[in-house]
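Q: Given only this backbone (516 positions), what sequence would you predict?
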């Protein structure tokens, strides 16, 4: 019996190895040391053959925190490092229309790790009377060690921070008299962070996007802060000048979550609409993914189209996220040409899916026309997105459709877990942003900033006068004064975001005056 207990204790400890390796990024030497340590500890634990077991002890207190830890690690292994706010947000708004890529080997190892912990625990429950004390102790340790525990505590009970609320500035709603209203095309390039240019074969991977940036303004130093690290958060941050603060799990009697979105603030399409712009959003994915439709309905978009509007046209040539980038870009080119024939200025927003982790979705066009060379599948998908973006801009320019028009290209967020995550993490990870077109001279601005600083930057590119360069909680990249990232540092800004209550309340629960 003693030997069985030693074997059980060994598997109990070794089952944690997979989770520890992934979460703390243990190397090979550390793994070997942990493995040897598990053997030594299992040999040193004092056991006896006492069979006087309390048969009435039925509960396994450690099961619940074990399930919570497994759930946390499951999310971590699929998405990599993630915001707790993203979890709350998607619980609230749903994930209709989306499906993460799950690597089967990770699921297998996660299940084996769970069983490798659970089965020894059940064995000890039956064969060691000390377990009645040890089980609750292990349950407490598992609960306290779970990052979810501290995230939940901090979200609901942590000290409030007024930094975001005190720094929020309402954007002006009208352009100055005499400003020529320029059209604007905004392309959200899924996961195409600039760090891909730095890793091995980065020059080839990012060649097209680097070429696009060389023709206009490029900002280098855009960091990802809390509550900006997923698709909807990336959209909102750059369009509204705020981070996507989740409502939380408990909202009282507020049942309007799928009918309104950020009703307390004005975003870019609101301002443009108030100035006579026609606003349109073309989306290759589903309308209802993560509350996208609620946002579009709440912020003065004249027209929105999604995968369902085009699926009969494209037939079987789709991914499970929606339209491939070559299809989307072809549709966008035609639509922009139509919009240029109208008499009033327009703002056209669109979002690609080609760079989505963990493997990407390169198009048939790229496979036929773009050499992959030594690039991995993920790198080739990033290159493919850049190829289609560059090609579309060239076509628009050749047709004369970039006159009095600004084109903005930026990724929505840093790429989530993928085969290059470890290599990317060795560099200063940056988001990608470039703006080109009428009146924009080629230049590179290097400064630390957050994605919400893009909101005032875009407004100034369009000719808006912003007091001190401020709009939302952002500050224009052109303004010489320090932005919040430079004032607080990355860690300080993350802390202010996660401890915010007041700006969150304003965004979700206040009602802004209707624009005329």
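A: Predicted residues:
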């Amino acid at each position: 019996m003693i030997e069985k207990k030693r074997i059980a204790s060994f598997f109990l400890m070794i089952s944690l190895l997979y989770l520890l390796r992934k979460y703390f990024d243990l190397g090979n030497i550390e793994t070997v040391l942990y493995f040897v340590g598990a053997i030594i500890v299992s040999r040193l634990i004092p056991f006896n053959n006492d069979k006087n077991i309390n048969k009435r002890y039925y509960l396994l207190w450690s099961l619940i925190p074990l399930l919570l830890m497994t759930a946390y690690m499951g999310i971590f292994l699929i998405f990599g490092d993630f915001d707790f706010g993203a979890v709350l947000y998607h619980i609230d708004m749903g994930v209709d229309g989306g499906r993460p890529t799950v690597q089967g080997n990770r699921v297998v190892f996660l299940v084996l790790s769970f069983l490798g912990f659970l089965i020894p625990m059940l064995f000890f429950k039956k064969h060691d009377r000390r377990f009645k004390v040890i089980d609750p102790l292990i349950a407490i340790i598992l609960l306290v060690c779970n990052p979810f525990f501290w995230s939940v505590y901090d979200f609901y009970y942590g000290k409030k921070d007024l930094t975001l609320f005190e720094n929020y500035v309402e954007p002006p709603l009208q352009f100055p008299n005499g400003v020529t209203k320029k059209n604007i095309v905004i392309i959200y390039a899924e996961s195409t962070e600039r760090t891909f240019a730095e890793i091995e074969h980065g020059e080839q991977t990012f060649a097209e996007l680097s070429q696009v940036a060389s023709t206009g303004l490029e900002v280098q130093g855009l960091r990802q802060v809390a509550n900006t690290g997923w698709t909807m958060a990336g959209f909102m941050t750059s369009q509204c000048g705020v981070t996507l603060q989740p409502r939380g799990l408990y909202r009282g009697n507020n049942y309007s979550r799928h009918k309104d979105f950020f009703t307390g603030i004005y975003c870019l399409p609101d301002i443009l609409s108030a100035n006579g712009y026609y606003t349109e959003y073309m989306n290759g994915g589903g309308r209802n993914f993560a509350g996208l439709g609620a946002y579009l309905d709440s912020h003065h978009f004249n027209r929105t189209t999604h995968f369902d509007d085009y699926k009969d046209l494209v037939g079987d040539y789709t991914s499970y996220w929606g339209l491939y980038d070559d299809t989307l870009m072809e549709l966008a080119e035609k639509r922009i040409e139509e919009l240029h024939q109208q008499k009033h200025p327009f703002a056209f927003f669109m979002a690609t899916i080609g760079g989505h982790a963990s493997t990407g979705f390169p198009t048939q066009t790229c496979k036929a026309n773009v050499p992959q060379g030594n690039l991995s599948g993920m790198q080739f998908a990033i290159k493919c997105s850049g190829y289609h973006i560059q090609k579309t801009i060239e076509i628009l320019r050749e047709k004369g459709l970039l006159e009095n028009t600004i084109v903005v290209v930026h990724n929505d967020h840093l790429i989530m877990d993928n085969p290059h995550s470890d290599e990317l993490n060795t560099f200063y990870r940056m988001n990608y942003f470039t703006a080109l077109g009428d009146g924009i001279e080629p230049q590179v601005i290097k400064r630390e900033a957050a994605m919400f600083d893009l909101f005032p930057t875009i407004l100034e590119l369009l000719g808006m006068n912003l007091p001190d360069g401020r709009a939302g909680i952002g500050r224009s990249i052109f303004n010489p004064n320090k932005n919040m990232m430079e004032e607080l540092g990355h860690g300080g800004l993350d802390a202010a975001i996660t401890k915010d209550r007041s700006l969150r309340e304003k965004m979700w629960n206040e009602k802004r005056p209707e624009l005329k």
